[in-house]
Amino acid sequence: MPIIDLTSLTRTFSAMGNALLPCHCVLCDAPLSGELLCHDCQLALPYLRGHTCESCALPLTTQSRFCGHCLQNPPAFSRSLIPFRYGFPIDSMIHRFKYRRHLTQGRTLSRLLADHLQHSYDQQPDLNLPEVIVPVPLHWSRRWLRGFNQTEALGWDLARDLNIPLATRLCRRRQRTPPQRGLSRKERQKNLRQAFSVTRRGRGAFEGRCVALLDDVVTTTSTTRALSKLLMEAGAAEVHVWALARTPDR
Ligand SMILES: [Zn+2]
Ligand SMILES: [Zn+2]
User: Fold this and answer.
1) CATH code, 197
2) Ligand 2 centre distance from Cα of residue 58 (Å)
3) Residue 7 belongs to some domain of the structure
4) pLDDT-above-90 percentage for the chain
């Protein structure tokens, strides 16, 4: 059973920072001179291009501002800033980072996301820059089994690259997997919302602030919807979802 102390691994990941940036492309092993990936691999990344939902970044085939789900059930978050579609090689980089703790892959991913976020906020001056980053919490048992929370590890990097504080102890996951069988979508949402809570330390901490909610991959938006609602109820002025990759709704 993989037991590695989360705190030390996360701090090592963060402290090593740029030292973890490879001198060979992590995807094809071509030599690098300061870039993140070689030119060909960088061009071949599955960027989320084209028209996407203004709220959840779901790729759309029509010119409407929002996807059907966001139109029917507007989420509590106002924007999703996500650079990639969940496809090769981003999927395998995330997998290697998450389950095999390839820290160099993680550092490359966090730098790609930081560059995208920096560019997005620079290009849209009307968009408020978040004042705090909240990584999606893992239940303690899963964190113990996996050895670390990959989203929190990405968060430490983004916090340093973007100079925005990371809050790791203001929210927690109370239940591992809430029983969802036989429930309607609305009931499932409520159920999932109850899986997260703001800790005693977090009370008052979100009041009037623009919060970045960080996840690695956004699939159904259930988690980000539940957590952003909780953050708004805790007084946040606005929530932006940040993630590495987006998959279409299942
Ligand atoms: Zn390459
Ligand atoms: Zn949407």
Assistant:
1) 3.40.50.2020
2) 6
3) no
4) 63
